[in-house]
Design brief:
GO molecular function, one term: DNA binding
Strand order of the largest sheet: 1-2
Shape: globular
Protein name: TetR family transcriptional regulator
Largest sheet: 2 strands, antiparallel
CATH class of the largest domain: Mainly Alpha
Radius of gyration: 20 Å
CATH architecture of the largest domain: Orthogonal Bundle
Strand content: under 5%
Keywords: DNA-binding, Transcription, Transcription regulation
Pfam families: TetR_C_29, TetR_N
Number of helices: 11
Oligomer: single chain
Number of strands: 2
């Protein structure tokens, strides 16, 4: 099985339970009295490892070797490999939701607000391939880890509230047609934006069009925004 085009084989890695300490691969050891930096360092390395190798392929031994801490410390902060992956998922979703909150869309017209939201979503996903790959990994595992995190459930309420607010204003002003479900709209936006990342390598090879080319990306971005806006127009 593959996670976003990378091997996700079921090779036993001995990551369950406590393991012996491994020395840091590089850099000075993090201070024991700086837990936030220690946790951040672990999450940064783990995010790259899970994005590159998937949940099954990633190994806590390797994550520990690449961090400035030990395997024992990883288990101390996150419990086990699954706990670490859940924390990585939480950080991934926090990053996009926090950036969305900075958009300040309430002062824009409904059409301009939806254009800004779609444009942001497209840019964020295209600029953060690691985010897309981590989400794809969780889907390969049937969303098995999402249910164990209340944070993940709560985090994604905000984007639906934002879409509902924009759409309701648009309907009230006669700009958008009524009868569209806000979750359906969110799904449409996400699907159109994520494809440029999730399928960029296969699509580029099959159709000989480099989806990472700036001109191709800009054209696709404009097309996605226009597609969403036209689907809403009254």
């Amino acid at each position: 099985m593959k996670d976003g085009g990378v091997p996700d084989g079921g090779v036993p890695d001995g990551d369950k339970g406590a393991g012996r300490d491994r020395p840091a691969a590089r850099g000075p050891a993090l201070r024991a009295n700086d837990p936030e930096n220690t946790r951040r360092n672990i999450l940064d390395i783990a995010s790259r490892e899970f994005a590159e190798k998937g949940f099954t392929g990633a190994r806590v031994d390797e994550i520990a070797a690449r961090t400035e801490t030990s395997k024992r410390m990883i288990y101390y902060y996150f419990g086990d490999k699954e706990g670490l992956f859940v924390a990585v998922l939480e950080e991934a979703y926090k990053s996009i939701r926090a950036r969305e909150a900075e958009l300040k869309l309430d002062h824009l017209s409904p059409e301009d607000a939806i254009r800004a939201l779609v444009g942001f979503t497209f840019d964020f996903q295209n600029d953060n391939e690691q985010f897309v790959r981590i989400v794809m990994t969780e889907n390969i595992h049937y969303g098995a880890h999402l249910g164990s995190s209340r944070i993940l459930q709560d985090l994604n309420v905000s984007v639906i509230d934002t879409i509902r607010s924009i759409y309701s204003r648009g309907v009230a002003e006669g700009v958008f047609r009524p009868g569209i479900d806000e979750i359906d709209l969110h799904q449409t936006i996400s699907a159109l934006c994520i494809f440029n990342v999730s399928n960029r390598y296969t699509f580029s090879r099959i159709f000989k069009r480099d989806l990472t080319d700036p001109e191709v990306r800009a054209r696709r971005r404009a097309s996605v925004i226009e597609t969403v806006v036209r689907s809403l127009k009254a």
